[in-house]
Design brief:
116 residues; mainly beta; Immunoglobulin-like; 4-stranded antiparallel beta sheet; 3-stranded antiparallel beta sheet; 2 helices; 50% strand; binds fe (ii) ion
Amino acid sequence: MKLQDILKKQEDEGREKHVPGITVVECSSCRELMVTVQVGREVMHPSTQEHYIRLINLFGRTKEGKTVLITGFNLEGQYSLPRVKVSVKKEAYSELLAVTYCTLHGVWENSLDVKL
Ligand SMILES: [Fe+2]
């Protein structure tokens, strides 16, 4: 089995609540970017005891082409919402990739070119 075998596709059923949305906001007074990952761009994914987003991992592609794990979150389902934020250095990454895991619907991903 390979990772691409288990990744859900952007066109798969349930994408509205599972594809992680990545947004980047530049701090006007510092050299940081605030990155937000929310699972479900159009409708936030549910968070119940049985059905929730367990993992949100954010990877970055550096300007040198190296892929690094920026951060990873292990969420608890009943009381957490599937939205996380992290600050990164401005100009550190050319691309961001979010990989998430739903306890019922599997592994989803999305990427964003960082152009500032
Ligand atoms: Fe789900």
